[in-house]
Structures are given as C-alpha cells and as structure tokens.
Amino acid sequence: MKVTPLADRVLVKTEKTEAKTASGIIIPETAQEKTQIATVIAVGDDKEKIKVKVGDRVMYDKYAGTQVKIDGVDHLILKAADVIATIE
C-alpha cells in the first residue's frame, strides 16, 4: 500500500528501541520509553513548510502524530512543525 501525506505532513517509520540494557537486562516492550527517532518515508506537497526529505533520520515531539500501520509496519504521520531535529 502506498501512502502519501498531504499538505505539511510527513510520513515516518519509527525506530525500535534497544530491548536490553548495557548489563544484559531485558526490558519488556510495555516498560520501554516511546522512541522519538524515525526515518522519513514520504513528505507532503507543501515544500515551503517541510524542511526534511525522504531518507532523513529525524527526532519528533514525544506525543506527536497519528499512528498508522502500513503493510504490518508501524508508521507515524506528523505535521512538519512536530519534527524538531535531523540526525546525521
């Protein structure tokens, strides 16, 4: 399925957090903190407001976006203003 965001929205794929601590303790998914890093999959058509491009790794606000499942994989649709930084 192909999803294309509209206006100033960005489709991102969230990254999974590490399930083990440095000492080897396994943390269950329910106790893990929500990740705030994702990879941009698609961007809307408002090029003036959107400052990221497909393939960029970004950080976003903790409770931002709408969760969607595309082909069994979790994604988020964010407003461009909810993207707070790019990661290199």
Helical residues, percent: under 10%
Question: Which spans have pLDDT < 50 for at least 5 consecutive residues?
Answer: none
Beta fraction = 35-45%
Main sheet strand line-up: 4-5-1-2-3-6
Tell me, briefly, the overall form: elongated
Distance between the termini: 29 Å
| Largest sheet features | 6 strands, antiparallel
Order of helices and strands: EEEEEE
Structural class: mainly beta
Output the number of helix runs: 0
Tally of extended strands?
Answer: 6
**CA gyration radius, whole angstroms:** 14 Å
Question: Mean pLDDT score, rounded?
Answer: 87
Question: Can you offer a commentary on this structure?
Answer:
- This protein is mainly β.
- Helix content is 0%, strand content 39%.
- The chain contains no helices and 6 strands.
- The protein starts with 8 loop residues before the first strand and ends with a strand.
Can you describe this structure in just a few lines?
By secondary structure, the chain is mainly beta. Helix content is 0%, strand content 39%.
